[in-house]
Amino acid sequence: MASSALSSSVFTSPCSLSSRVYGDSLLLISRTRCGPNRLCSSRKLYRVRATTLQENEKKVEVEKSFQPKSFPDEEGKGSGEGQSSSKLEGWIIKLEQSVNVLLTDSVIKVLDAFYHDRSYARFFVLETIARVPYFAFMSVLHLYETLGWWRRADYLQVHFAESWNEMHHLLIMEELGGNSWWFDRFLSQHIAVFYYFMTVFMYMISPRMAYHFSECVERHAFETYDKFIKLQGDELKKLPAPEVAVKYYTGGDLYLFDEFQTARPPNSRRPKIENLYDVFLNIRDDEAEHCKTMKACQTHGNLRSPHSFTEDDLDHDPGCGTSTRLLGVIWCLWSSATPHPHHIELNYRKQFQISN
């Protein structure tokens, strides 16, 4: 199977994004516009590499998340106070990532202890856990919208598509018998409940930390599937693909399948499912796409639905009110004292394309 990869450069700023599709590449064009009582950042851009994965490639690379030193010093450059603030934020990011790595390693040790020789059961537990953060993200987003703090249509669309993808991974593992033991169902469901409330709390305090934690989980899932494919590839090619996998990857409307893959334009990935090897190959590649999306989410304003880009985005920019810091509950409480209903409604109408 030939290996090929197509890379696209994504230039992002902490403000609004525009885009065009050139062949198989998606170019995001960032603009900065500030208004009264809005947080503002400089026009300095920084590059994020996004690798477009092809269906037929064997090796998939998943880039590591931003490290604190990779964030540009955008606020107060040349100012002692600004530099101190940037340094403090770097330490906060480092602390958040360290805690996430520790939590992820703890979960991995539990899975290794119980499932070192039971792959399908391990995958069942892993997929039960992996889909939980997207429920948590949507719960908090709906809460914020209900309270009138901010609306993020693209975030809701993409996170639902991610949960839909993970649900089908789970259905595949159930069809393969990964949930046949009562203990596996008990363990995965109880971990999932705890994980949900932990993620809700984390997302309300620091969305950046919650997204990085989810990235760590998805990265482990990618590495687990990649290792399994390398070890069992020959045997998997002899086994038939589950019906649920064939329907999900090749049948009907693939809108939601494209929706969670924010690093690539829609319709650029159409898997072929001929055997069980192809199924696991595509599940592995799905996890790589989740990693990219979670990485993009760690800078507020980076995430856009792949289906939301239009030519009008290049000529119209309603402005933005964000910086590189994500919007946790503390920011929302402060912002609620000085609401900007016109900006919120404008953003809502633009994202859902509602006309008067």
From TrEMBL:
GO terms for cellular component: membrane; mitochondrion; respiratory chain complex; thylakoid. It catalyses: 2 a ubiquinol + O2 = 2 a ubiquinone + 2 H2O. It is found in: Membrane. CDD domains: AOX. Its EC number is 1.10.3.11. Pfam families: AOX. The keyword Transport applies. Its main location: membrane. Its cofactor is Fe cation. Residues 59-78 have a biased composition (Basic and acidic residues). One of its GO terms (biological process) is carotenoid biosynthetic process. Binds 2 iron ions per subunit. GO terms for molecular function: alternative oxidase activity; metal ion binding; superoxide-generating NADPH oxidase activity; ubiquinol:oxygen oxidoreductase activity. Residues 59-85 are annotated as: Disordered. PANTHER family: ALTERNATIVE OXIDASE (PTHR31803), UBIQUINOL OXIDASE 4, CHLOROPLASTIC_CHROMOPLASTIC (PTHR31803:SF10). Belongs to the alternative oxidase family. This is Ubiquinol oxidase.
